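SAMPLE LOG
Freezer: B-3
Tube label: C17
Construct: single chain, 197 aa
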Amino acid sequence: MHWYNLKTVPEIHNYFEKSIVVILLATMLFACKRDLKTVAAYGEIDTLPELTARNIEYVRSDSGEIQAILTSPLMYQYTGDDEYIVFPEGFQVEFFDSVGQIQSRLTAEYGISYQKKKIMEARKNVRIINFEKNEQLDTEKLIWDQRKKIIYSDTTVKITTEEDVLFGTGLEADESFDKYEIFDPSGEMEIEEEDEK
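STRUCTURE (predicted):
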């Protein structure tokens, strides 16, 4: 076995230097390899919320009469050109009639409210119950237009009444779910026949 002094054998010294440089370059090249989708996703990461609140309650009233109360376990508020509020752990809105009784209730597992547009989108296990008519709406996505005081959906909806279960692809209703129209309806309905005399 022969021992060489690297300072005295220049070819070996240069070989080791070049090998180390090549290994470092290869390591950096493969370490920096990224999927274009992953890189694009970094640009989509939103800023931190301006405000975070827990167990919130928001009351909407008109001329001293409570119209709706929104509650949520967690709220994130984002500011900017298009200010919005996110309810990542779900929310509930109760709508009141003119004498202060709860007329209907909207619940969902996720919500986002666009402040300037006055539009709120409910997602995941969305349910509206109309207590006066004893009817229930179930869907996966629902939009609440607070200016027009309407709710609508373009996804599958299921409405359960005391007598019937109706399905459709889309719906439009007043915000209290008192009057509604189902698009592309299906299901079984009981129709009473009139006696002929």
